[in-house]
Amino acid sequence: MAKLSDELKNALKYSDIKIPAYISENLKHELREYQESALKHYILQRKAPHTNHLLFNMATGSGKTMIMAALMLDLFKNGYRNFVFFVNSTAILQKTMANFTDSFSSKYLFKDRILIDEKQVQIRAVRNFDESKDDAVNIVFITIQGLFSLFKDERENSLSISDLAKEKIVFIADEAHHLNADTKKNKKESELKEGWESVVNKAFGANSENFMLEFTATVPNQKEVVQKYEDKIAYEYALKEFCKDGYSKNITLLKYENADINRRFLGAVLASLYRQMTAFKNGIGLKPVILFKSETIAASNDNEAKFNEFIQSIDGDEIEKFYSEISANLGDMLYKSYECFKGLGESWYSKTAMLIRENFKSEFILNVNKDEELNKNQILLNSLEDDDNYVRVIFAVDKLNEGWDVLNLFDIVRLSDKISSKGHTSPTSEVQLIGRGARYYPFYEGDMRYKRKFDDLSNELCVIETLSYHTLNQNSFISSLNHELIKQGLIASEAYELVEFKPTKRACRIAKTDKIYYIKNERYKKGEIFKTKMHMQNLQSEISTLFMPFISDAVLENAVDFKKYEQKDHSYKTDSIKNRIDYIVFLKALNVLELGLKQINENFSFDSKEAFWQEISSVKVNFVREQKFSRENQLKLMIYILNHYKSLRQKIKSEYEVSEFRAYRLEQTGVRKMLKKKDKVKTHGYEWLYYDKYCDDSELELGFLKFIDGYKTKLDKKFASWIVVRNDGFDEFKIYGKDAIGFEPDFIMFAKLKGDDKFLGLECIFEPKGEHLAGKDGWKEELLKSLDSKKFEFKNDELKIVGFPFYLKNDNEKFKKKWDEFLNASLGL
């Protein structure tokens, strides 16, 4: 497929194109990087002569409708008022109409109030352009079949060819690969869709100022189609790029040896329930959805009945039997679920069965096999992520392979045992469906909201970044499916493998006998303060510094003028809030300040006010020793604390903020599993390196390892114990500079001074850097310099940081000087 001309690519590379404010400020969601790139390509092409027909070839799940919304705003700004949106499917049409025009829909694409040139603009669905308004984007929503029918048999109050001739119109075609029947010269398809493409071309050609925008994830590979679009491609963003850039879930295959369909039913609901419990444990609201896929409608209806019967009768014995039978082919997912459910305590098999019966009742099942059912339930299918959407399980054949926007689909279960190269459950059709389910579910705020964060598979949260495909273990089908998944870019190619990083003997000994601490800070976007556990700790830390005002029973019957009572001539006693203030008083203070759960959760993710109380009440603050704690005084003190919280949460320094560095205990000291390129993973003979393998990224890093090994004897003499971690993308070691840019140091050394039998109280941070990058990345060296000699407390322990200059290949005087000072420093460092 041809791409942009060299002239346009160069123009884009060297231009200072900005996305106009009338686009970015009127969209509900922030544009992703590749979406901005698509719009910049469009802006350049729109300026080129004779460019009024463009194709956006973008991956499923990449947000094509967001691009459409942005283009509508741009074309409105440039004088267009009338739009025709058409697609092959009625279901997709209804869904997209809601996305564009229903401001109450959770997937509405625009801001509640759209302003262009300081005038309010409406987005309206119309039947024909006689209904158009000049201050609106007027859209006729229609299927290709409907468009064809209208032009073959014009009807009153409907769109007509005469409408098209007198108005300049923007045509937006979704799933545009259906429009190429004539071009492909495919007799069978042209018999079914005869004239569709020619009718669309006739409509488009009715006015020379018309604009055509086509969108598809799949452009047919026929020579004639390739030639048709050769000079029309505005932007390409393939599925491989989409997945590689981290915008998709990871994909795992769960292969069942036992052909009993109940095994797949149970495996899916256990995986789904495990995801839900893991999310809840981490303060994340998630309702994972399961899709059961059958070969025929009759089989699907039968399977739904079997599922209901199975769920209603399930007991602890069934679950115990399942876990005793599962094979290694099922991988980590179900073994981890086993450990999770064990945490329910005594009689956990029975408790798990009860949870399954409650979460997968027949009322929570949606069957979409019939056209009338699909249309009727389109709202439910398009809002599966909403809090009030009850659907947990879907039974389908092939109605959802195209145009289905779903983020919280986490399990797809192939119920058919048949193997065929064609049909509803062929490898190709299954991959198409997996591609829809692979859309990422955003459960954290911040700049990484729509990207995977836990490719380190040892992190428990990777389970809610993973889609599981459950199938009978049939070698020919699995082989074909894997091939198609790799071809489409949904899973890593054969160049990648799941690598186990195992601790060396020294690392195991240190992890067993010593505590290891590290420092970390975090970046968050303005208005998104305190969403994470770390931000909660920041709040607790801030409150713990408070010196509470002295409040007498005799003063201030109404509003509290706290400044008047912040006296400095008192002695103080530190105590937790909950030891001095009652929960009922806390609730009253919330009412006084009009802080409901909704307001609290602008900054947190608590399920209840009680959960917020549990976090905040454990903080110790400084109370005046002679303070009396009557109910009235408790209320005034609690209002003081919550007022401090209110002002703290509203601090906004810049577009991004960076938290203070804090010390944390290294919890992940065992085996880590990560996807890595096979040819980059190396074993080594360095017993002082934490893991038995590392990724060989450069000769410079290999040189640094040899450098450290050359000082092994001196380091052994200086320290009671020491260990070096090669940072192969481990999340806990990522830090941020003052401009909120992320930095992942390549090597971290932890050491324990001789005479200190408590813990490894020293963290040294190293970064090998090629000279050609040293200037560009100078801020990283400044960050390490700013951390040098800093001390951080963790409970009763103290961690000291040594930040080194870059380790360079040639001019390494600064590093060696610092290294010599480090080796020759006294034990106090």
From TrEMBL:
<dbReference type="InterPro" id="IPR050742">
    <property type="entry name" value="Helicase_Restrict-Modif_Enz"/>
</dbReference>
<dbReference type="InterPro" id="IPR014001">
    <property type="entry name" value="Helicase_ATP-bd"/>
</dbReference>
<feature type="domain" description="Helicase ATP-binding">
    <location>
        <begin position="45"/>
        <end position="237"/>
    </location>
</feature>
<dbReference type="InterPro" id="IPR027417">
    <property type="entry name" value="P-loop_NTPase"/>
</dbReference>
<protein>
    <recommendedName>
        <fullName>Helicase ATP-binding domain-containing protein</fullName>
    </recommendedName>
</protein>
<dbReference type="Pfam" id="PF04851">
    <property type="entry name" value="ResIII"/>
</dbReference>
<dbReference type="InterPro" id="IPR006935">
    <property type="entry name" value="Helicase/UvrB_N"/>
</dbReference>
